């Protein structure tokens, strides 16, 4: 017999009754029933109930074993009596009568309970992450992550993609966030950068003649944490394709994403959740900002925002009428069925808007063929009819309004759309709604300096190519750039790349870079493009966010084995940490620390 186990704790069934087995695992829970002691033994695969009689010479050792101590148990499998069967446990029809017991490791008193879902706070959970990961929900989440990555790899291979690894020590690049820098010992005063993404390397692979690349790529960015973004590092499904259009990229990745989500749609659920079928909806960036107030729309929410400038142009509601005359906008957010809500609901929504920095949300309530509410008296019948036509609202509904500069109005209207959809229980939970956001602007104007700068990825191909760059107002040029969004969460950005040096030089010239600066900052890329580059494009859906959605977890910390805190600290390993003066000297570094603030 194997010294530790003949079976996993989770695999024993009634057909094993009568056999002698050996199990090893952690003491999950103990129950003392007087003459009998029940020990739930847990391993990676599940739980098995073990039982020992008080008359056994091993009883004292079993009774003294603390929770989370590691035991090896040998015993005979017996069927439970009908009244003691546990239908909630896969092994609930049997138990193991303990005949031999070895304590492999003794656990100290626990700082958190593994057999409980109680939240002990970030500091405790991350300081003792190895215990936190033993908890059932966390254990299943991390196993899910592994299974999702395996599924993605299989699907990418089946689609003709080849996996490559790109460098971790590389040069700094303008990806939009701060780099993590690594000092060079043999090149004093010079630094490597950890890659924010394998962007240039994957393009260089296409220039090298490979056709379809992918990688489960680690990416490093020195940026603050958010609920859906881990500080420091994250992983993405990075892929690139040669001789493709934007639609070719969509057609390649949609079946992979839809397939993965369909495969794991029943995770932690009573039934599988519906997944958007390819092809996913394509929504122009401008339309997304108008209809949803965001380029990350949650399509589970049926509310669509409308432009109602003309309803208020020249109206008696002077605040909105003046705003329209000053080239500001008025956006309407319909609230289906909200006419039945009490006045307090409307007041709370106004308070919420003021909490967002807005003066409030004007509204009208549509009922009995007319309208009531703070703004209704300023709108005649023709304007009410126009409002209904533009918003699709009717009797029984309400319509809220946001007025400001276009960007600010879109932001408030988008937040209000989500708030109203949630309050009225309109968001269709239990499904995965995908869409592509396309036609992003190539450039934008910096609000402080007034300069033209790249809106997103500087390596994107402009729609219209060189002619557009030479003849159009830069702010009207669209890029072959796209984001994929699921349930209001951006999974990735991508683009058809700019593969021609002449177009790249011109694109950067518009953003204020001369040719020498382009040659200096992007030497590897621009040099390679001069030797014949294929049209190519790709994207990079985030692994962490995919698993978050499938696990239905609101915080990315719950699906990463060893995350850092919001302050980018690893409490378990003690990182970041100071290093010795000798090590700094070896790296030719001298510290210039900020002054220590006096204690308050």
The main sheet comes to: 8 strands, mixed
Low-confidence stretches: none
Helix content: 25-40%
Shape, principal axes of CA atoms: globular
Strand content: 15-25%
Measured distance between first and last alpha carbons: 65 Å
Radius of gyration: 30 Å
The helix tally amounts to 18
Q: Could you give the order of strands across the largest sheet?
A: 6-9-10-22-21-20-17-11
Whole-number mean pLDDT:
95
Overview of this protein structure:
- This protein has 600 residues and is α+β, with helices and mostly antiparallel strands.
- Helix content is 29%, strand content 23%.
- The protein contains 18 helices and 22 strands.
- It has an 8-stranded mixed beta sheet, sandwiched between helices. Strands 1-2-3-5-4 form a 5-stranded mixed barrel.
- The longest helix is centred in the N-terminal third of the chain and has 23 residues.
- The chain starts with 19 loop residues before the first strand and ends in a 14-residue tail after the last helix.
- The mean pLDDT is 95.
What attributes does this structure have?
29% helix; 600 residues; 18 helices; globular; alpha+beta; 8-stranded mixed beta sheet; 5-stranded mixed barrel
Summarize the structure.
The protein has helices at 59-64, 122-127, 129-132, 136-158, 199-207, 246-263, 285-291, 309-312, 318-325, 343-355, 381-391, 406-423, 465-471, 501-510, 515-521, 523-529, 543-551, 581-586, and strands at residues 20-32, 36-43, 46-53, 70-79, 94-105, 162-163, 181-183, 191-193, 212-221, 232-242, 282-284, 306-307, 329-335, 362-367, 370-372, 398-404, 434-438, 443-445, 452-454, 481-486, 489-496, 536-539.
